[in-house]
Amino acid sequence: MTATDPALLHRDPHYTYPVLVKGEGIYLYDEAGNRYIDGTAGAGNVTLGHGRHEVVEAMAAQGRELAYCFSTFFTNQPALEYAHRLAELAPGDLNHAYFVSGGSEGVETAIKLARLYHVQRVQAQKHQIIGRWRGYHGATLGALAATGMPGLRAPFEPYLPAFPHIASCYPYRCAFAGCEDRCNLTCARQLEETIREVGADNIAAFIAEPVVMAGVAAGVPPPDYYPLIRQICDEHDVLFIADEIITGFGRTGKLFAIEHWDVVPDMIVFGKGASSGYAPLGGVLLSEQMRRDLTRSGQALPHVFTYVNNPVSMRAGLAVLDLLEEESIVEHAAQVGGYLQEKAQGLTRHACVGQVRGKSLMLGIELVQDRRSRKPFPPEWGVSRRVPQLTLERGLAISGASGGADWVAGDDLRFYPPLIITKEQLDESLAIIDECLELLEEELRQKGWVPT
Ligand SMILES: Cc1ncc(COP(=O)(O)O)c(C=O)c1O
User: Fold this and answer.
1) Beta 203-208 vs 20-24: how paired, if at all?
2) Which CATH superfamily is domain 328-446 in?
3) 168, 245, 247, best to mutate for ligand 1 pocket (most atoms within 8 Å of CB)
4) Between vectors from CA 51 to CA 314 and to CA 88, what angle results, nearest 5°?
5) How far apart are CA 267 and CA 113, in angstroms?
6) Among candidates 287, 345, 278, which has minimal Cα distance to 48?
7) What's the CA-to-centroid distance between 217 and ligand 1, angstroms?
8) Nearest CA to ligand 1 atom 8
């Protein structure tokens, strides 16, 4: 059995995946003995780092007592306890929880709860969900319909309901006049325009990631953005769903990223960091009013997954909350995250770096052919694939993506390590990125690139 064994359908048939055998702290080890810094925390999951025996022991103990419980007939203590703990920690009156087994399931649930809420209030026409171009909300069809990434949507378009989309907040490449790096909130006002176009009577909810990672490499909207979004949603009886699947549980230096804007959404969808990758876990936190109206009819919700309230996942979630508190991990993330954002600005010494941006331990690096015009590199040069290859060879796993400029061209890199990372480990990671950008520039010059 090898990394290229066809028995297992991997995502990319052209890539030879290192076979991992161990994880410890911020490090991953493969079967050939190579060590990698997990510079994406396993795509935003492993907030506490690898090898956390406390979480594993809590799950094992729960598994020995009660490993499974079907939520249609029974409930369980860990689920009740976890719901109470989250209610204490969530912003505003988001005091009610619905637990599932991952991010996409959480988004599907939020979409359905938004719809059911309006149906209960005899607003039966309200059904559309407004998403944003460059937003990512998951792989399942409802979540994909809200997602604004054409490459992921294209093959499945025939299955997707026609949800409207507005622009994401992306000042570096904003198409609206007058923005020029300083967002003038035209993108937020587009929400109101779209609600008017489609008719508020047709709109159930608006969904957004507080800080976009998949589509805008750590794009952070200005302080007025979400207050304006909240106001527009309130004026049109549209629910605001914050997708915190990647930003939640400390990634941006607060438990939930939306707290940076002092805004309380109607629902928060979470996943990934909730269990730090130790168990499949996601969910929706919802407001008092939503719970009241959803349960008013006295009828059972027409929505369930097999792993709702799974006791072992609940224990993982509780153990993660314990560790976040005991080790002040969110505070640590805020502190070292500030250091990262400042220090990473040094990467702009490379002519190929157009912008370094982000919030706390979410870092995005946009690469450009020409800094003045922001012209992207030719897509066939594969710049955003090349740098992660180079860093991996030097012991750092980061990710890259293309399409930032026009869905085909436009390259960026993403670094979002476990929240337990130290300043020294951040220095080590940035040094590797710095070295690899140097190597990239050498290769680009050989291709005829002239730095400006
Ligand atoms: C913002 C956001 N929403 C939704 C999802 C989907 O979550 P999952 O892959 O756990 O289904 C992701 C996953 O990367 C995400 O980053």
Assistant:
1) unpaired
2) Aspartate Aminotransferase, domain 1 (3.90.1150.10)
3) 245
4) 35
5) 9
6) 278
7) 14
8) 103
Q: Tell me the best of 45, 246, 278, 284 to mutate to test the pocket of ligand 1, counting ligand atoms within 8 Å of each CB and taking the most.
A: 246
Q: Which residues pair with 212 in a beta bridge?
A: 219
Three-class SS of residue 64? helix
Q: CA-based diameter of the chain, in Å?
A: 69
For the record, the structure tokens of 177 come out as: 């006049």
Q: CATH code for 53-326?
A: 3.40.640.10
Q: 107: CA distance to ligand 1 center in Å?
A: 9
Expressed in angstroms and rounded, the spacing between residue 245 Cα and the centre of ligand 1 is 6
Locus of tokens 């976040």: 324
Torsion of CA 101, 105, 111, 117, to 10 degrees: -30
The answer to whether the CB of 294 falls within 8 A of the CB of 301 is yes
Q: Which two tokens stand for residue 273?
A: 């960091």
DSSP bridge pairs for 22: 29
Q: Is the C-alpha dihedral spanning 435, 440, 443, 444 positive or negative? A: negative
Query: Which residues have a Cβ under 8 Å from the Cβ of 169 and sit 6 or more positions away?
Result: 183, 187, 188, 212, 216, 219, 221, 222, 225
Instruction: Residue 249: name the closest of 345, 309, 343, 316 by CA.
Output: 316
Fill in the DSSP letter of residue 241. Answer: E
| Positions of CATH 3.90.1150.10 in the chain | 328-446
Quote the ligand 1 centre to 31 CA distance (angstroms).
28
Contact (CB, 8 A) for 172 and 348: no
Range(s) within the chain of domains with CATH label 3.40.640.10 = 53-326
**Tens-binned pLDDT, residue by residue, of the chain (452 aa):** 777 788 999 998 888 899 999 999 999 999 999 999 999 999 999 999 999 999 999 999 999 999 999 999 999 999 999 999 999 999 999 999 999 999 999 999 999 999 999 999 998 899 999 999 999 999 999 999 999 999 999 999 999 999 999 999 999 999 898 887 889 999 999 999 999 999 999 999 999 999 999 999 999 999 999 999 999 999 999 999 999 999 999 999 999 999 999 999 999 999 999 999 999 999 999 999 999 999 998 999 999 999 999 999 999 999 999 999 999 999 999 999 999 999 999 999 999 999 999 999 999 999 999 999 999 999 999 999 999 999 999 999 999 999 999 999 999 999 999 999 999 999 999 999 999 999 999 999 999 999 98
Tokens at residue 377, please? 């590199």
Give the helix, strand, coil percentages of the chain, each rounded to 5.
Answer: 40, 15, 40
Backbone angles phi, psi at 212, to 5 degrees: -80, 130
SS3 state at 283: strand
